[in-house]
Amino acid sequence: MKAVAFLQRRQGDDASDAIRRLVRRGLESELSELYGRGEISLRHAADLLSLTVRECLELFALRGVSGNVTMAQAFEAHSVAECLVD
Total structural domains in the chain? Predict the structure, then answer.
């Protein structure tokens, strides 16, 4: 619990706020790794983090995790979408 005490002093929070922040950061880290490996969708990660898809993508980008969709997949999805519109 030294980390919690350290964060309390550093941020001026109580223990529960420090613990919540640690849990949140751990969840963000774990989900960004899962997303980066393609084991979880962006929408699912955003839902678990209570973020919009865009906010989640920006968070992952800040953590150095790029999208897990290849250019070929993006082009294929675009082609399918065009067929659905026609």
Answer: 1
pLDDT tens string 25-71: 999 999 999 999 989 999 999 999 999 999 998 999 999 998 766 67
Would you tell me how many other CB atoms lie within 10 Å of the CB of residue 54?
10
Alpha carbon distances (Å) from 11 to 7, 18, 31, 35, 40: 6, 8, 25, 30, 32
**C-alpha to C-alpha distance for 32 and 42, rounded to whole angstroms:** 9
Determine whether 73 is exposed, middle or buried from the number of CB atoms within 10 Å of its CB (0-12, 13-18, 19+). Answer: exposed
Two structure tokens written together for 48 = 């678990």
Its domain, for residue 12, covers 2-85
User: What distance in Å separates the CA atoms of residue 51 and residue 41, rounded to the nearest whole number?
Assistant: 13
